[in-house]
Task: inverse folding
């Protein structure tokens, strides 16, 4: 179960090692994609805790969310609509939602264990 | 178990991807790449401003350099003041504005008392001694002295300059504008030996004896000839316009 965390660390190291500098104008797309990815991760954790975790949903969610977030933001910039902000708000709200649910489940689990 | 491992593998991959994205995003925010998004007119404006700035800075630099060179010049001139003073005193000596001392001779021309007695004894009328020595005689004498290596001359302590005049005015002799009287005393700076011998060779004593004058030549180790003390007539010289205050 610790392998994903090892993978995360390896990814960070690899990213720094690559030394890629994203230009300012594309930075917002990357940040949105990152936000979507984080949301997917927390969603996965939540579904895992709720025992409804499905690998296919998770993988498809991750890739679709990131790509669509970035794509919509790009389209918004193209059309002159700040869809980028909408994506940020939407993913932000979902992220905090997921975090809250995870916290509540963990808390409930911990309380249950202590009561037993 | 196989399913579980697969899920772990996928999760690891995805977290690795997210890690890469995180790292890239972090790096981009830490060292943002400056990209130009301003219009050409804006850029031109900025360029003009910068050019203006650089002009001001260049002007500043040249001003400072000027100041520096001025200071250096003044530093140099502190050194050269000594040289200038030396030069000035040399020029003053040459121009006769400063007293000069050195080896030289004194020629005294006075009435010969013995001859006077003889004349007296023979009841001849005593001539005015001033009439006996003329300006021409003194001019000849000074000219001979100069020709034989005298550097500085004075007659009765009147310094002779390059444009000095010796002339008869009435019955008196004037050096420049000053009247001189008997006895005449001529001081000359130069090698005493050559001056004395040349005077003897020229027949100085005989020449003046013919006009009832006695000539004595004395050699002096340290002869002082005073500075010219008359008024100077500068005709063709003008002071150079002073160069700044530095």
Result:
């Amino acid at each position: 179960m610790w392998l994903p965390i090892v993978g995360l660390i390896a990814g960070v190291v690899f990213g720094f090692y690559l030394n890629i500098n994203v230009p300012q104008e594309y930075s917002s797309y990357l940040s949105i994609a990152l936000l979507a990815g984080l949301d997917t991760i927390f969603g996965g954790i939540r579904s895992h805790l709720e025992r409804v975790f499905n690998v296919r949903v998770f993988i498809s969610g991750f890739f679709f969310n990131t790509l669509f977030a970035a794509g919509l933001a790009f389209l918004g910039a193209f059309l002159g609509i700040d869809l980028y902000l909408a994506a940020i708000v939407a993913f932000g709200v979902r992220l905090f939602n997921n975090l809250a649910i995870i916290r509540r489940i963990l808390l409930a689990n911990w309380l249950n264990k202590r009561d037993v | 178990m196989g399913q579980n491992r697969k899920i772990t593998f996928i999760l690891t991959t995805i977290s690795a991807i997210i890690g890469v994205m995180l790292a890239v995003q972090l790096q981009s925010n830490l060292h943002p790449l400056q990209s130009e998004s301003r219009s050409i007119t804006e850029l031109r404006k900025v360029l003009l401003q910068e050019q203006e700035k650089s002009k001001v800075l260049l002007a500043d630099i040249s001003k400072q350099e000027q100041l520096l060179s001025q200071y250096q010049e003044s530093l140099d001139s502190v050194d050269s003041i000594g040289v200038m003073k030396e030069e000035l005193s040399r020029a003053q000596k040459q121009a006769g504005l400063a007293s000069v001392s050195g080896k030289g001779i004194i020629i005294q021309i006075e009435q010969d008392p013995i001859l006077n007695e003889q004349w007296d004894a023979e009841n001849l009328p005593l001539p005015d001694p001033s009439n006996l020595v003329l300006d021409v005689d003194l001019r000849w004498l000074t000219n001979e002295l100069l020709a034989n290596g005298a550097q500085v001359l004075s007659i009765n302590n009147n310094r002779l300059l390059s444009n000095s005049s010796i002339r008869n005015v009435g019955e008196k002799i004037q050096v420049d504008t000053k009247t001189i009287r008997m006895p005449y005393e001529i001081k000359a700076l130069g090698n005493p030996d050559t001056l004395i011998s040349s005077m003897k060779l020229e027949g100085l004593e005989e020449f003046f004896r013919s006009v009832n004058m006695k000539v004595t030549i004395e050699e002096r180790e340290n002869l002082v000839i005073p500075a010219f003390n008359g008024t100077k007539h500068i005709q063709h010289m003008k002071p150079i316009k002073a160069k700044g205050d530095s």
